[in-house]
Amino acid sequence: MDIVKGNMGWIEVIVGPMFSGKSEEMIRRLRRAEIARQRVQIFKPAIDERYAANEIVSHSGLGIPSDAVAKAAEILEKVQPRTEVVGIDEAQFLGDDVVDVCTKLANLGKRVIVGGLDTDYRGRPFEPMPRLLAIAEEITKLLAICVRCGNPAVHTQRLVESEELIVVGAGGMYEARCRRCFEPNLAQLSKEPSPFLAPSARAAGGAAK
Ligand SMILES: [Zn+2]
Asked: What is the CATH number of domain 10-144?
């Protein structure tokens, strides 16, 4: 955002498949805000525990302290009036309410940076990210690199089929694939509602579709 008058808030969305550097990009923007001495608060869903409970960590190991929330409404309760920048990572796990939460925060004059997967392991739009894209002022779509052929990769390929292995972001279960190499039916499960959700989140309603 080049020109922003007064205390106007807005919504920035960072999307892309796994391994595209979304968390890294979010960390970069949040660090720059901190350097500018802005008050920053960072949230992520409590179910994303792949590296640390109270940190956003990118695949490359960059970390920044964050607050784990069980649902989107908790973010509104926890954001302090003086906070200027709000980061929300892995927003696809927070359900449709996160759209209203982001809208309210932006209307309060805050810069909201929200990241997440825009498609699931079958290549389908992954709500609520498409709705966030529609209402955002600024959109960044990142691509990964296809592990098969080296082309830009838009898809998250799921590799495993066992229901025992439905966990968030574990290594070796997913890889980045381009449009040509993507196999949407490779890990098809008969009764699984949502590919990226941990069992606890599915039981709670989560972002299951
Ligand atoms: Zn490829």
From this structure: 3.40.50.300
